From TrEMBL:
<feature type="compositionally biased region" description="Basic and acidic residues">
    <location>
        <begin position="198"/>
        <end position="212"/>
    </location>
</feature>
<feature type="region of interest" description="Disordered">
    <location>
        <begin position="193"/>
        <end position="239"/>
    </location>
</feature>
<feature type="compositionally biased region" description="Basic and acidic residues">
    <location>
        <begin position="222"/>
        <end position="233"/>
    </location>
</feature>
<dbReference type="Pfam" id="PF24494">
    <property type="entry name" value="DUF7587"/>
</dbReference>
<protein>
    <recommendedName>
        <fullName>DUF7587 domain-containing protein</fullName>
    </recommendedName>
</protein>
<feature type="domain" description="DUF7587">
    <location>
        <begin position="19"/>
        <end position="167"/>
    </location>
</feature>
<dbReference type="InterPro" id="IPR056009">
    <property type="entry name" value="DUF7587"/>
</dbReference>
Amino acid sequence: MEKDHRLLVDKYRHPHQQLPSNLYRIQYLTTNTIHQWDTGLQAVNTRTDIFGQSGNAAEDFKQAVCNQFNWRNKDPTPFISFFSDEGHAENWGLKLEEWGRSNRDMNDWYLLTIDTSTLKDVYFFKLSTLIDKLHLERRIPQEVQHAHKPGAYICLHRIPPGAIVEEARSKLQIIELTAWRDNTIVSWEEMMEESYDPTDHEPYDPTDHEPYDPTDDEFYDPTDHEPYDPTDHEPEELW
């Protein structure tokens, strides 16, 4: 990375010691970010001179940030996006189908957990800081800011495979886990329905039933058995 580019990214880089211990990424089929188990995560554009190609490095940086959060963008970006909250990441993943970014294949996206403690050399940026300092409020759609600004981070170029510390969870696994967390019993058929909403149910209450009373059985007769006789058995042979 050339000197002026490094000065630019250093200016907005989020301090490593202030990063969350874990970051979370939803990796889906149509994303530009490449994920391979032996090489980790890699942005589609890894050029080190990307900021400044137009002659204005600051404007190129701003545009790259905006492009990262614009699904209509076709230009390759140098960033990879993350969430700082696992639950937020899961909810966002579950909405991909609603937003037209995912099909009905239950395994077309998965969740990755990133350990940031080993990533001191990776350039991270906090989205809320970039929006405020670069004055991007009118250049990034409001619905995107609402979904991402509170806890979103982006990094430059790549994440090594060793920092991906948790086995990926698929969309179906997350739906099942969400149901389990809410102490609900959800059938497989319900989860497969297009209209299934894991939040649309009453929490399970194990006390919400009448205790079993055997005398309620119309066929129950407490006298209808022989009394127990402890001597009424053959002695065991010991050998």
